[in-house]
Amino acid sequence: MAHTVREKAKLLARVRRMKGQMEAVERALESEAPCGDVMQLLASIRGALAGLTSEVVEGYLHEHVLHASDETARAEAANELAQVLRTYIR
Amino acid sequence: MAHTVREKAKLLARVRRMKGQMEAVERALESEAPCGDVMQLLASIRGALAGLTSEVVEGYLHEHVLHASDETARAEAANELAQVLRTYIR
Amino acid sequence: MAHTVREKAKLLARVRRMKGQMEAVERALESEAPCGDVMQLLASIRGALAGLTSEVVEGYLHEHVLHASDETARAEAANELAQVLRTYIR
Amino acid sequence: MAHTVREKAKLLARVRRMKGQMEAVERALESEAPCGDVMQLLASIRGALAGLTSEVVEGYLHEHVLHASDETARAEAANELAQVLRTYIR
């Protein structure tokens, strides 16, 4: 069972929390809150997003690369992971 | 006028697009989409968030540090900016 | 043959270039060059380091995870890679 | 006095430590050490570089933007800082 299915409830809760943070940015912009508040909210979303992404990437590495069903699937997963890592290691 | 007020409509549009991307992650998890899709969606949100944050930080630097109303306001803004930068330069 | 052995000359050239950049920072500090110069030099090293790291990580993923000699070696390599990725995805 | 002059000895010590780490990467490549060792060394340099950069950026923000000699110098420093921040917030 894929990691994102096994941990579905926990991952969904984290995504919804981030959506709530995004809505807080929306409200801050609409109500013309101090620019510093918007900046701090964005920094906190970044932290939450990094935490979620780190967990999903690690789950992907173990589920689809380490425990691939066959060598073709493993190679495809390794390539997909490499593509995503390029957006982070820069 | 603060940068986030002057550019309010444009910034709100970007935030709402990111919220839409977040909802796409939510649907992907709910529908038990392939783990790789979730990973790619999260990477694209990261890019959008970085772009928005970079603009808000730069607006803050110019609006509240460079063109502060007085030296006390400038010092407070510089400290708030320094705090946020620590979460990025690591 | 490991990626870092096969690409040894190319990787060594990149590391020596970065060492040269680091020596430029050293000279800038010693000669009390403008602070902005030191800041720009550090930013350029970061870019070079990210490029080199991205290549080594990708080589590692393919060499030691995808084409591991056996399942034990694969599991160890996946864990080592996961550990390194945690320092980047944050 | 500029931050990089006032803290010269401390900053030079950090740069020389990083140069030592870079030489360790050089030796690891030359001696064909395990690829994982190279990867871990690069990750540790990244951490050291981020710490040094964060300190230099913060010193720059306070020295050259907050306490600029005049408004022209302040505007130039703010622009130089904005340029460097774009390489980090992405």
From TrEMBL, chains A, B, C, D:
One of its GO terms (biological process) is negative regulation of DNA-templated transcription. Pfam families: Trns_repr_metal. GO terms for molecular function: DNA binding; metal ion binding. CDD domains: RcnR-FrmR-like_DUF156. It comes from the Bacteria. Belongs to the FrmR/RcnR family. This is Metal/formaldehyde-sensitive transcriptional repressor.
